[in-house]
Amino acid sequence: xxxxxxxxxxxxxxxxxxxxxxxxxxxxxxxxxxxxxxxxxxxxxxxxxxxxxxxxxxxxxxxxxxxxxxxxxxxxxxxxxxxxxxxxxxxxxxxxxxxxxxxxxxxxxxxxxxxxxxxxxxxxxxxxxxxxxxxxxxxxxxxxxxxxxxxxxxxxxxxxxxxxxxxxxxxxxxxxxxxxxxxxxxxxxxxxxxxxxxxxxxxxxxxxxxxxxxxxxxxxxxxxxxxxxxxxxxxxxxxxxxxxxxxxxxxxxxxxxxxxxxxxxxxxxxxxxxxxxxxxxxxxxxxxxxxxxxxxxxxxxxxxxxxxxxxxxxxxxxxxxxxxxxxxxxxxxxxxxxxxxxxxxxxxxxxxxxxxxxx
Length: 359
Fold this sequence. Notes:
By secondary structure, this protein is of the alpha+beta class.
């Protein structure tokens, strides 16, 4: 039987649309030509790859290609509503990529594919969307991931704050890793990869509400390379978590409760920028609860702590790494800090909201 003449004949490239006006209108969410032009001009032009370019309702992968990376699939999703959209050290686009890459990586996964869904307020400048999309594309390329599918919605003016982004991510966990908040045992050491609280302080300063001029930049970064480095050194690491909303204190409480252990950290060993300390003192904030977007908390067996710490310090995103405390068995579920004065204070789970809209 003869094959149809068009089988295996390359299709000519589709002509992409172009937005000709300066601001987003409700028509750009209506499902017609205006929406296709927006998607082509702003997003496809930046994210283009063989999985995305067909613009089907889903991206399609060969299972054999995924299996080359490991034996478990990791899947995560997160939404980003930061205010302001642009801040020293990053923007909402970079934040969306880094946050989802990190959520995969802390589970021991190799991040591979991301989705991008945006909710856009009517009246937003098209050029601003282009800038955000370009930032996402740049960070995705740096992290070695592809943005393969997505969605666009436009809402009436006042129904959202300029732009909200949701990203979901798929990665594959390498064979032999079992990272969980319930794995910590007495004697384990708590490590962090550098200065804490920079992101939360940056966002508050960038809003200008407090008339403060703090020379602080967000630590927003994709941490998959650092995480791979330390897992290669020590596959027996118990747990890794990026300390985002709720900061270091929240992560430590999650570990203590899930593992049924106590944790004590040392105030003089916990790395904080002098400017962040001063910023928090002025505003009455606790830096242990400030958000981070480029910092991880690592629980490692004591016998491997030195080599893992050394590996972290040798990586560009871990030069300020420190061992800040240890896991104990004296009061299950409790986190404490030994202060510089020699006393102890309880470090509880954050109640309420210390700083809104930071990621």
